Amino acid sequence: YIFKHALIQDAAYQSLLKRTRQQYHQQVAQLLEQRFPETVEAHPELVAHHFGEAGCAEEAVTYSHKAGQIALARSANVEAATHLERGLELLAQLPETPERHERELEMQMALGPALVAARGFAVPAVGQAYARAWELCRLLEDDARLPLVLRGRQVFHLMSGELNEAREFAEEFLDLAERLQDPALMVGSYHALGQTLFFHGDLTASRSTVEKGIALFDPARHRLSNWSGGQPGEQCYLYGAFSLWMLGYPDQAMRRSEEALAMANELPNPANLINTLCFVADVHVLRREPSAARQRAQATMDMSAEQRNPSFLGPSMVLHGWAQAAQDQVEDGMAEIEQGIATFEATGVRTWMPFFLGLQAEAYGRAKRTDDGLGSVSEALALAEKTEEHCWRAELCRIKGELLLALSSKHHAEAERCFCQALDLARAQQAKSWELRAAMSLARLWQAQGKADEARNLLAPIYAWFTEGFDTADLQEAKALLDRLE
Prior knowledge:
The chain is an all-alpha fold and 486 residues long. The chain has helices spanning 6-15, 18-35, 37-42, 44-53, 57-73, 77-91, 98-119, 124-140, 146-159, 163-180, 183-200, 203-216, 232-247, 250-266, 270-286, 290-307, 313-326, 330-346, 353-366, 370-387, 393-407, 412-428, 432-448, 452-465, 473-485. Helix 15 (270-286) packs antiparallel against helix 16 (290-307) and helix 24 packs antiparallel against helix 25 (473-485). The longest helix is centred in the N-terminal third of the chain and has 22 residues, at 98-119. The radius of gyration is 26 Å and the shape is elongated.
């Protein structure tokens, strides 16, 4: 039938009795099944639509689930989430039986990763999907699928800034993986716990935990499907890199991140590669390498836009903007950082935000917008205090001190307190890289005050502690400062 106008088509459709319409929809769906198997195979959502409109919920659920799986395989995550959510709505119309619970568990477990990729780690729908899957695992006494559900709950709470809840689920995940003696799940559980420990600021424990995962990981055997975020093997390497950098091993951190990227490039999984590229860019930012950071961040931005993945679009924009500002494109960099933070906030994620706000504060400092920089760093410190995301606090205190120094000479005493607080926090975490930066800031202040001996005695021991990374900006700057102090 050809209609001259869509309104005529709608009028003709609505003029049919509901039961007649349902019969026609059922006939169309059945005809598709019988005579057009290629169409059914390629577009199960079409069959799902007709069965759904026909009131045949069970058949519609089957085809919606299949459509979701096909979309997931193509990384079409927005479409996958839509199909799976529609299927779950229809499933709720069926009688409550163990078979229905089994089907719902499969669909909720597929929905979780689709929502993460399509909308972000911390949107409420992600938490609801994994919470319901957790209930179903308990109801069905299903320990086989519970580990991935626990991981989903852990990452949702982690990215929502609820680190204590995240740690509880990570520890439960590790206990279950050890009980099941599944190496792939054990790698995943080491990543989940190591990741959580990192954000808490327990850097040595985080490093030792992810190193257990690295020792166990075999890329050919230990890949996990339905995993929220990057693959756990690569993630162990990347969180190992973050901890190694903070603990004072910048070269080892770079090697770990490059190993992770090499493995991700071997795996045909866009979400995993996006995740890995963004984290490698983070390592370059920590090492103060704007050119390399800009390159990795640009690749992440391009892939995130192509895959419609919002989780890493905002962060990569922030990292790219920081690199621009560090390369004297300050105005462009600040604009991109602001846009990246707004994009990131829209996903509901709170973890990592103190770090990004700290980068924004640095860029404001470069632009002589000191008051704006102090606003960003104060917001970052307040958020880190609220969520207990302690891994960035030493550096945030140092940045605040530098901005206070730039504000006016009246704030020198307050700036000195910030630098001393940064030193105390870094030493408590054994974060040698943060300690070096804080010592440099305080040494420069003391040098300006005519206290060169105290400045040298502060900086020399921490510089002497390092055994690698002497070509990095921080250590080169520290060496130049020591030479001046001599």
